[in-house]
Amino acid sequence: MFVMRQSKAVSFAAVRPWAFDINALRRVFQVLPAFAAAFWLVVAGLATGVVPAHAEDTTYDTPTGLPLPRWAMLRKNEVYARNGPSKDNRIVWTYRQATLPVQIISETRDWRLVCDPDGGVAWVARSMIQAQKTVMSPVGQKVAIRKSPSADSDVRATLRPRSLASLDKCKKGWCRISADGQTGWAPESELWGTQTAAVCKRPDPFAPK
């Protein structure tokens, strides 16, 4: 019977609204000042435009706020490449391949300085560029498209030199691509359009002296 009474007492104490642990209450009052300080720090930061670093989205000191270099692709089958960021600048050549991947290495508000697969560097209007969805096999090199991301995996197809492929994703040195109805994996190092560093090391050859 003693055990039953003890059980009832514990159960009753657990539901009494006025029952509390005095030590737990003390701990609450001990941490309240820290919470209050953190709260007012955030409020002060919002008022001054200063917010904690982890609360900000990553931005870059570029006209678009996007990183350089970065990859994109041409929007149309006829894109003029100029020797400066203006329509007043001379056309140095014309790109005639929509979806050609290019690397943006510099930019203004309305123009992009791009590096193409042949190493050419020129300015292209922002309206002629769109988000990257393609990669390209290098000049003079075939690229095997494999069933899985492994050098031992079966080959499903082969990209001829200077062939375009749709890019799905890249991970751990392999990229999932599609071409001519075939989808598979290719080594990231064998594709043009996956490099994180600037591909064209030389400066803009058409920049005003």
Can you give a write-up of this model?
With 209 residues, the protein is of the alpha+beta class. It folds into three domains: 2-48, no CATH class; 70-132, Roll (SH3 type barrels), CATH 2.30.30.40; 135-190, SH3 Domains (SH3 type barrels, Roll), CATH 2.30.30.40. It has helices spanning 2-15, 22-48, and strands at residues 70-74, 79-82, 91-95, 101-107, 111-115, 121-125, 129-131, 134-136, 143-146, 155-159, 164-171, 174-179, 182-187. Strands 6-5-4-1-7 form a five-stranded antiparallel beta sheet, with no helix packed on it. Strands 8-11-12-13 form a four-stranded antiparallel beta sheet, with no helix packed on it. Strands 2-3 form a two-stranded antiparallel sheet. A hairpin with a 2-residue loop joins strand 11 (164-171) and strand 12. The model is unreliable at 1-22 and 35-56 (pLDDT under 50).
CATH architecture of the largest domain: Roll
The CATH topology of the largest domain: SH3 type barrels
Please provide the ordered H/E string of secondary-structure elements: HHEEEEEEEEEEEEE
Rg (CA only): 30 Å
- Strand ordering within the main sheet: 6-5-4-1-7
CATH level 1 name of the largest domain:
Mainly Beta
- The CATH homologous superfamily of the largest domain corresponds to SH3 Domains
Largest sheet: 5 strands, antiparallel
In percent, how helical is the residue content?
10-25%
Mean pLDDT: 79
Can you count the helices? 2
Q: Which term fits the overall shape? A: globular
Q: Strand portion, in percent? A: 25-35%
Number of distinct beta strands: 13
Low-confidence stretches: 1-22, 35-56
Terminal CA distance reads 100 Å
Name the structural class: alpha+beta
User: Could you say how many structural domains there are in total?
Assistant: 3
